[in-house]
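Table S2 (text version). Query chain:
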Amino acid sequence: MPNFDAISGELVQADQALSLEELAHALHANSTLIIEMVEFSLLVPQGSNPENWSFDSYSLKRAQRALSFKRDLELNMQGIALALDLLDHIDELETQLNILRRYAG
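Corresponding structure-token output:
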């Protein structure tokens, strides 16, 4: 009989802004780690200081990916930043390629 692990999560609306504490809670991480991600420009919150930061759904997705790299690949913040930048660039190139294919075909 297969062994299934329980998966838990929270639904976050795409247009819902999250505070630092809410983002940390959604990621099952501590606020210090989120602040470190901001310091390394992995996340760019709205607001001038941690008490009034807000994060969008893109930040949530990016932070989830960053934590996955940290946990699964044991990358440091510099490595995570490089990996995320390269993935962003790939996404951008794929979007441009799809547009070109649409016009060429």
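Notes on Table S2: Helices lie at 20-27, 31-39, 57-73, 77-104. The longest helix spans residues 77-104.
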